[in-house]
Write a structure and sequence with these properties.
heterodimer; A: about 130 residues; alpha/beta; 5 helices; about 20% strand; globular; B: about 375 residues; five-stranded mixed β-sheet; 10 helices; 12 strands; about 50% helix; elongated
Chain lengths: ~130, ~375
């Protein structure tokens, strides 16, 4: 029995392939989308319990604005409380925690961040924490 | 369609109607498009409108002289080929016309063949100029895109490879024997090093002073340091080290780029963790100097040999630890830090005593 359904939005199918067994090992069901547009469709159609969103997809902005849409747009009002975790390879760029800088533009940020490559225990711990809320 | 493929346009500017007509005939016969203008003013208006490839221009015309038109063409688009035709050919006027950017000079009267040859040569020149131009533009664009490209094309596949290692090592793709586990761990570690190196190297390539300066805004150094210390706390504790940000109530304002300065201080503090002794401590403190604010990161680590001090900001230089432990990192961190600090009109210094520890100090100019 699946504990919850998780949507992974990432443009690299191999990354999705690699991360899926981690989530499955903790009894989560995994669905995926290869781009923000497909992601939107799946969010509405499948109503996942949590979203893992790669913010390096095409541009940083894509991830940010999709996240903001989920939290604020009318079309997502039924799913606006779905937790979103950003997966980023950006951490190394700043040498410190990746900071969400969209707030200055009035964008709403994610519930958590996790860095690529994802450590299995870390991912599961963060997912569990957000799903408990 | 680019300017290179389309039918070449040639404009004839001359006050003599017969000459305009005869030139046009020759031009059209050669398969080009011919346009004409009777004086300098009308000629320049057509240049702006049509952006011809080549202009045949009479020097001596009523109203605006050929020289003036040459000046204006050069200003408007230096890649347009101008060829001067004149009945008053003197060496002086030829030299003058060349100085003003004319490509060639054809004294009147000239034969149709002479005109054909000179036009052909001029257009060939134009083609070369345009090709070089577009190559140059392409190269510039490539350079600009290079960093983004490299970062995506190199980093994302490596990230995915690393992800597969994590899953296999985590036992989530089936059982892994001890020997396999050991080898996979080594492969993963090497991969992580490689990713670090790519990141640092990209940082170094990206650290262009202008870009950093563009992002300057007033900042609180205390706030930046608080964030970093909070973030680094777990890794310090994991090494059994204490880390302290000394309370400070002086001026901590600086003009700078939040992101890159965070990178500098993070680098200094993470070095202080990496090169410390078990049970050691790290002290981060601010000091107000006469014209600058000093950020100090003090550790109780292995220290740096005096002869190494001048080298530590060099690319790829790494302090070898006394106990022969393999040094960590890529050897680029401090040279990146130095570049960033210098872009902020600041300086970075180090004092050290072997076996006792080191203090790195970043001086940033005060805002006022």
């Amino acid at each position: 029995m699946e504990k919850a359904k998780i949507l992974v939005i990432d443009d690299d199918p191999d990354f999705v392939d690699a991360i899926t067994p981690i989530l499955q090992s903790a009894q989560y069901g995994v669905i995926s989308a290869a781009n923000p547009a497909q992601g939107k469709e799946k969010i509405l159609a499948e109503k996942p319990d949590l979203i893992l969103l790669d913010i390096m997809m095409d541009s940083l902005f894509d991830g940010f604005s999709l996240c903001n849409d989920i939290k604020t747009a009318k079309e997502f009002k039924d799913v606006k409380d779905t937790p979103v975790i950003f997966i980023s390879a950006v951490k190394e760029m700043t040498g410190a925690r990746f900071q969400f800088q969209g707030e200055e533009q009035g964008l709403i940020g994610p519930d958590d961040y996790i860095d690529k490559p994802v450590k299995p225990e870390d991912l599961i711990a963060r997912v569990e924490k957000l799903l408990k809320k | 369609m680019t300017a290179l493929d389309k039918k070449n346009t040639i404009l004839v500017i001359d006050d003599e109607e017969s000459l305009r007509d005869s030139c046009s005939q020759i031009i059209v016969k050669e398969g080009y498009r011919a346009e004409t203008a009777g004086d300098g003013l009308a000629g320049f208006a057509k240049i702006q409108e049509l952006q011809p490839d080549l202009v045949l221009i009479d020097l001596k015309m009523p109203g605006q002289s050929g020289f003036e038109v040459l000046d204006r063409i050069k200003e408007f688009d230096p890649n347009i080929i101008s060829i001067v035709i004149t009945g008053y050919a003197t060496v002086e006027s030829a030299v003058e016309a060349m100085k003003k950017g004319a490509y060639d000079f054809l004294p009147k009267p000239f034969s149709p063949d002479q005109l054909r040859i000179i036009i052909k040569r001029g257009l060939e020149r134009r083609r070369l100029i345009l090709e070089t131009d577009s190559l140059r533009r392409e190269k510039k664009l490539m350079e600009e895109n290079f960093i983004t490209m490299v970062s995506h094309q190199l980093r994302s596949p490596l990230g995915t490879i690393a992800q597969y290692f994590e899953v296999i090592l985590g036992g989530m793709a089936g059982e892994v024997g001890p020997k396999q586990k050991e080898m996979l761990s080594k492969a993963r570690d090497r991969l992580e090093k490689l990713m670090e190196l790519i990141n640092d190297w990209l940082d170094l390539a990206r650290m262009n002073r202008g870009q950093i300066v563009d992002r300057f805004k007033p900042l609180s150094l205390k706030k930046i340091l608080e964030n970093i210390v909070e973030f680094m706390l777990p890794s310090a504790q994991a090494e059994n080290l204490s880390i302290e940000l000394v309370p400070y109530s002086g001026d901590d304002s600086a003009e700078g780029d939040d992101e890159t300065l965070t990178q500098v201080f993070s680098n200094l503090i993470s070095n202080a963790i990496k090169y410390n002794k078990p049970g050691g401590r790290i002290k981060v403190f601010l000091e107000e100097k006469e014209t600058s604010i000093a950020v100090n990161v003090e550790d109780t680590g292995i220290g740096i040999l005096e002869e190494h001090l001048p080298l530590i900001f060099d690319q790829f230089f790494r302090v070898k630890s006394v106990d022969g432990k393999k040094s960590k990192g890529t050897g680029l961190g401090l040279s990146i830090a130095k570049k960033i600090v210098e872009a902020h009109n600041g300086t970075i210094q180090v004092t050290s005593e072997v076996g006792k520890g080191s203090t790195f100090t970043v001086f940033l100019p005060k805002m006022r």
